[in-house]
Structure formats: structure tokens, C-alpha cells
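Input (structure):
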């Protein structure tokens, strides 16, 4: 086999090995699935994914008011799809409440009230999510009207929609109403409407089997290509070290001697 042919084989092995490494890196890389502004919400997503057997991490990005948290999972597209399904079933992909306009240190009283209402809403929903079996929580409420600008104030009201996956919910509607009422000023439990809905989560696809098979296949291919690459390198080096074949000069001389003798004999005959 010529040196050029060996180089072609060596180059082909390197290309296949590189593609296999790229495939393995893609199968084991991190996939971004969700961006949230609240760190507690990011921690909750990571915990729920971990309960479902999906390894997830959070990463902080941005600064100041633009700070947010990225939630990432380890794996390929199958694991990413399973993680998105878990997030949707637990209503963790909801868009955050729209921020009121205004920024800086000095803000209007209306903007500050809206921000306070948003913080209370997130706090109440977070407490209700801590109840075992809870998957989705949606809380809406009306803050009490300021008595200094209104003669007949309308009362505070609220509603809470709680979806749970367990066969039964561990607490009653009255208890949920009390938890919501404690989070809103001047809100009474009798003015809180509560709905409890039992809804099992969807079963996750068998993503682990395909993911593990892909990992084993790629690792096996890498091992085979590594052995093939090693053999090719040894073969090329051996070919370079072998000296070029040396001609048998004695044999060549022995073949040329009779020819010289015959030519000398012809010359003598001519002289005679």
C-alpha cells in the first residue's frame, strides 16, 4: 500500500472520529428550556424536574433590573421535550405579570402599588405550590381601595384556582381561602373564591432508553475508531521506518559476466 493511500485512510479515520465526538458532545450538552426572573421560581423548576428524574441546573444572567435565570437540562432533544412537558403540566411556564411602567429610585405611588401587588401574588402562589400534590396555581385579587380618596370603598376580593395530581387534596377550600386572605390587606376569607381541580399529570415518554442507547452506541464507536486510528498510525510509522529494498549486486554481476565473456570471444575470432 502506498504512502498516499495510507494518508487517505488516516485522514478518513480522523474525520469519522471528529464527527463521533461532535455527536457525543451534542448528546451530553446542556439545553436551555426556560427563563424566569424570580430565583425562587427557578429553584422550584429545578426541584420539580429533579423529582421527575431530569437533571437540571439554573444559571444567572443579566444585571440589575434585567437580571434573570436560565434553567438548563443535561441531554439531547428527548430530555428537553420531557422537561418542557413537566414544566407545562405544573404550570411553570407562565409569563410573569406585566411590569408597571417606570424605573429608577423615584416612582409614582401607583407604580409602587402595582409592584407590591405583584410581589404578593407571587408569594401567595408560591405558598400554595408548597402543598403536596399541587401542580398549578392561579391567584387573582383586588387590592383594597385607598380610604383617603374613596368614601365608599369596595371590599377586597380574590380567587384561587388550584390543580393537583394526587387522588385527594390534603387541605380544604376554607384553608386555602385563609392562606390567600392572609396575603392581601383587608381581605376576608369569605371573599375568596377557591376552586380545586384534580388532574393527573401526563406520563413522560421513555426518553432514558433512547438516550442511554445513543450514549452507549457513540462511546462504542469512539472506542472502535480509537483502536483503528492507533493501528493506522502504527502501520504508517512502520512503513516509514522500513528501508528501501537493496538490489542483489552479486547476482547482477554474475549475470553480466557471461555476457562480457561471450563478447570477448567474438572479438578474438574476428582478429584471427
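Output (sequence):
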Amino acid at each position: 500500500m502506498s504512502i498516499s493511500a495510507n494518508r487517505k485512510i488516516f485522514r478518513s479515520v480522523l474525520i469519522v472520529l471528529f464527527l463521533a465526538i461532535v455527536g457525543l458532545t451534542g448528546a451530553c450538552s446542556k439545553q436551555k428550556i426556560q427563563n424566569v426572573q424570580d430565583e425562587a421560581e427557578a429553584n422550584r423548576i429545578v426541584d420539580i424536574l429533579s423529582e421527575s428524574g431530569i437533571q437540571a441546573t439554573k444559571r444567572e444572567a443579566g444585571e440589575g433590573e434585567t437580571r434573570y435565570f436560565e434553567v438548563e437540562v443535561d441531554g439531547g432533544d428527548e430530555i428537553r421535550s420531557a422537561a418542557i412537558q413537566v414544566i407545562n403540566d405544573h404550570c411553570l411556564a407562565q409569563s410573569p405579570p406585566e411590569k408597571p411602567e417606570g424605573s429608577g429610585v423615584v416612582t409614582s405611588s401607583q407604580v409602587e402599588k402595582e409592584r407590591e401587588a405583584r410581589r404578593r401574588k407571587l408569594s401567595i402562589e408560591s405558598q400554595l405550590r408548597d402543598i403536596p400534590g399541587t401542580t398549578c396555581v392561579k391567584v387573582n385579587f383586588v387590592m383594597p381601595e385607598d380610604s383617603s380618596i374613596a368614601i365608599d370603598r369596595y371590599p377586597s376580593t380574590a380567587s384561587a384556582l388550584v390543580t393537583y395530581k394526587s387522588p385527594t387534596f390534603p387541605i380544604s377550600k376554607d384553608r386555602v381561602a385563609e392562606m390567600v386572605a392572609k396575603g392581601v390587606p383587608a381581605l376576608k376569607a369569605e371573599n375568596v373564591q377557591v376552586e380545586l381541580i384534580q388532574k393527573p399529570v401526563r406520563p413522560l415518554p421513555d426518553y432514558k432508553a433512547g438516550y442511554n442507547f445513543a450514549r452507549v452506541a457513540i462511546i462504542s464507536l469512539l472506542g472502535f475508531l480509537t483502536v483503528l486510528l492507533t493501528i493506522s498510525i502504527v502501520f504508517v510509522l512502520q512503513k516509514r521506518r522500513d528501508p528501501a529494498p537493496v538490489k542483489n549486486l552479486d547476482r547482477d554481476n554474475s549475470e553480466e559476466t557471461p555476457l562480457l565473456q561471450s563478447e570477448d570471444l567474438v572479438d578474438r575470432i574476428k582478429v584471427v
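Notes: Residues 87 and 93 are 6 Å apart (CA to CA). Confidence is low (pLDDT under 50) at residues 102-106.
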